[in-house]
Amino acid sequence: MKVRILGCSGGIGGRHLGTTSILVDHDILIDAGTGVTNLPLAELALIDHVFLTHSHLDHIASLPLLIDSVSDLRAHAVTVHAGTATLEIISRHIFNWAIWPDFTVIPSGERAMMKYRPLAVGESVRLGERTITALPAEHTVPAVGYQLDSGAGSLVFTGDTTLNPAFWPVVNQIANLRYLLIETAFPNRDKRLAELSKHLCPSMLAEELKNLAVPAELYISHLKPSQIELTMGEIEACAAHHKPRMLYNNQLFEF
User: What is the Cα–Cα distance from 5 to 36, expressed in whole angstroms?
Assistant: First the structure.
């Protein structure tokens, strides 16, 4: 399994900063933030499955344009996997003809360019030799994280989340865990904002990592563009034992 980071920033502000999107091999996206725009049209047309963590704009911004751009290049629908609440939100507020056409009925219900597949926490989808499992997340809207399992190894992506007791017992049971990608959106000075928006700051991250009982390489996502150095410095100070590293665009994981 090859996992390429297309975007992992908490905002925009240059070609090196794209919001959350992860390409798995050539045919799967985890989230569809602005990082997707770095892919050429030929690669966009190969994407068969999109797994959404939640409905916030920085995680879905490119989905409407992706579906539209490849609609005449594909013979079958792109499948969008997400929790029932997330699918209802994007159906009602994005693919509603007022903001964007409803591609679940274009050009017809029988030959639609997009289809929805509800996915519950704990449920897995098997695609060839790859298994993608929805993990618990805690955010201001219904959300999940994902485990990507190649058989030889696993990568876990938390998605957007805050203090999340339900997450760690699941992660600690993953025998082949290799990588943990976890968000930290705000520096410690903005802890109250992190709590209100249900994100993490470095002190909260350090508390969460006390629950991690299995070895894994730790990468930090969703850093605010203007606060990268401050936040990473605080993370390195309070969670040094875990050797945290910043996730960056075009980083590649193979397992």
Answer: 10
In sign, the C-alpha dihedral spanning 245, 246, 250, 254 is positive
Q: Return d(Cα 74, Cα 49) in angstroms, integer.
A: 13
Contact 249, 17 (CB under 8 A): yes
Residue entry with tokens 């339900």: 166
Q: Based on the structure, what is the number of domains in the chain?
A: 1
Which pLDDT does position 14 carry in this prediction? Answer: 82
Range of the domain at 166: 2-254
Pick 16 or 122 by higher pLDDT.
122
Contact of 146 with 53, CB cutoff 8 Å: yes
According to the model, what pLDDT value does residue 109 have?
87
For 166, which DSSP code? Answer: T
CATH number of the domain to which 165 belongs: 3.60.15.10
Alpha-carbon distance of 80 to 71, in angstroms, equals 14
* pTM of structure: 0.97
Question: In sequence order, what are the beta bridge partners of 114?
Answer: 78
